[in-house]
Amino acid sequence: MATTPTENRGTWNTKFGFILAAAGSAVGLGNIWRFPTEAASNGGAAFLIIYIICVTLIGLPVMIAELSIGRSTQKNPVGAFKALSTNKFFPLVGFWGVLCGVMILSFYTIIAGWTFSHVFVEIFTFAGWHSAAELLADSENGWINAIFAMLFMGLTIVIIRGGVSEGIERATKLMMPLLVFILVIMTLYVVFQPGAAEGLEVYLKPDFSMITGELVLAALGQAFFSLSLGMGALITYGSYLSKKENIVEAASFVTLADVGIAFLAGLLIMPTIFLAQAQGVEIYDETGNFLAGPALIFQILPELFSQMGGFLGLTIGISFFFLLSLAALTSTISLLEVPTSYIIDEHGVRRKKAALYVGLTVLALSIIISFNTGLIGDIDYIFSVIGLPLGGLLICIFIGYFWKTRSAVDEMKNGFKDIRDSWFTTVWSVFIKFICPIIIVIILAQTIFG
Ligand code: PHE
Question: pTM above the 0.90 mark?
Answer without folding.
Answer: yes
